[in-house]
Please model this.
Amino acid sequence: MEDLCIKEATDADCKELAEFANKYLAEHFQIFAIRDKAYYQRLLKEYKSDGGSLIIFRKDGRIVDCKRCIPGGEKVAEGEEVLEEPPKIMIRIVDVRRILMSLSLRSLMGVCFQVTDPIIEENNRYLLLTGTEFSGVMLMEGKPENSEGTITIAALASIIFGAETVDEACQEKDVQMSERMKEELGKIIPLSKIYLNEVV
Model:
């Protein structure tokens, strides 16, 4: 077994911790909050104020793991909390194109529709969503004359994150979909690998 170097994290480790965490999260999750040096500096202060610390595990000089050490000697692996049910989160899409490009599909799809967003002007657009189960989503600007319906950013978020079915989202105010649009949006595989552990 290779030797592990185990030590308490300090401010000097925060940049490297952020790089390690972001790489790990990108490999295992579809949606996650990006960490930076300031995030870990704040985390170290929070743990210290509770009498705890963050322990770093290094192998060959590189960080391979980190665990929270809490009073009483109990250690809890970061991100490995066992939940009885998925946590409830509030969803707000800030870049509709980027989130759509991260989706996977069940089968070949192609549909043009209008997205409406009362807050973020850049999200108000006509989109042509195409792709396959192999390629993922391909996104182009759509044309109003080709649109098969209108969906609010909130209803689209509900579909993307699996909070509602397409039929349920279609019942929301200001949402109008052709039957074909409903079928096509039903081919979206909702995002499920999500790691958001911050209370905002």
Observations:
- The helical segments are 14-28, 37-49, 96-101, 153-160, 166-170, 179-185.
- The longest helix spans residues 14-28.
